[in-house]
Amino acid sequence: MSEGVLHVRGRVLPSDEIVDLWIADGVIQPEPSANAETVVTDGYILPGLVDAHCHIGLGPAGPIDAEGARAQAEADLAVGVMLVRDAGSPSDTRWIDQEAGLPKVKRAGRHIARAKRYIRYLAAEVEPEDLVDEVRTQARAGDGWVKLVGDWIEREAGDLAPLWPADVAAQAIAAAHEEGARVTAHCFQEQSVAELVAAGIDCIEHGTGLAPDVIEEMARRGTALVPTMINLANFPTYASQGAAKFPTYSAHMLDLHARRYETIGMAVEAGVQVYSGTDAGTVVAHGRTPDEIVELAKVGGAEFALGAASWRARPWLGEQNLTPGASADLVVYAEDPRVNLQIVHSPAVKILRGRLV
């Protein structure tokens, strides 16, 4: 990476106005800077991309070492991701905060699940009577977020089922709010997402079981949704893996998959706050945010999808866009991505914290 006084000229989306950005000391300057190096004379500029659901420091078998976590973060940066909401990881990745050349990470602590009701090695496992205390623990360990596992396969039922009684979940969410943290939850099926939205949760991950009335309630409450569209595409694989032993679960997953675009599209139409997240870290590789943007465009259009991964997502996670004094995190494309969305796979210039990557 190189640093210095930089000058970037182009259109900062979603505006079509041509502007000049002056960068010094890692931030956007209010006035032109002398001796600036012009690195872009005509481009399409996005505030640094966001992956609002990924897992740095997590692999298919659980926690990974710092070298592996660095490789994951670098894969995200390579496609222009400069802000990550880590939606649950068993690894301590706070060392990343001292690395100027890696994306900024907002953490949710560890997943919280029940024993034998989620993927092994990933979660802090507790029973309902201990959920509130564990939520407080993870709220203090994270950066303003807590991650619940809302549903998973229940062997006796042979299908997806909620992990937590609705009243206990409501108490846990209230406890997180007292700790100054927001709460999100993994939700595939119908009952869990309805109960958690009613309980006052702040965000839903995946959301394939959303019904129209729950979507309306999310829009009314301001509950966000991160659908992880490229992970939803894996539902047929998950279904086939459980088909022999749990045929009801398998059929359910296939049904959720078949109507995923309709379900997420209804949320977009209703005005739910939808953000881009890949769920990278286990079955999904890091660095796939461009693929997620393309998938989101299928339900909301190109400009909607770009905003979900950039200028709308950053303030939601407490970060500024490209205003004076803001961290100079930006991605530049040679063509308008609203017209040629595939260009998001090929950023021409990346600037992170005022440094040319």
What's the short version?
The chain has 357 residues and is α/β, with parallel strands linked by helices.
Note down, in words, how this protein is organized:
The structure is a single chain. The chain is of the alpha/beta class. Helices cover 32% and strands 25% of the residues. The chain is built from 12 helices and 21 strands. The protein has helices at 66-78, 131-141, 166-178, 190-198, 212-221, 229-232, 235-242, 247-258, 260-270, 289-300, 302-308, 313-316, and strands spanning 2-3, 6-12, 18-24, 27-28, 37-47, 49-54, 58-59, 62-63, 81-86, 104-107, 111-113, 123-125, 145-149, 151-154, 159-162, 182-187, 203-206, 224-226, 330-333, 349-352, 355-356. The strands form 5 sheets. It has an 8-stranded mixed beta sheet, with no helix packed on it. The chain has a 6-stranded parallel beta sheet with strand order 12-11-13-16-17-18. Helix 7 runs antiparallel to helix 8 and helix 10 (289-300) crosses helix 11 (302-308). The chain is globular and about 70 Å long. The chain starts with a strand and ends with a strand. 48% of the residues are buried. The model has no long low-confidence stretch (mean pLDDT 97).
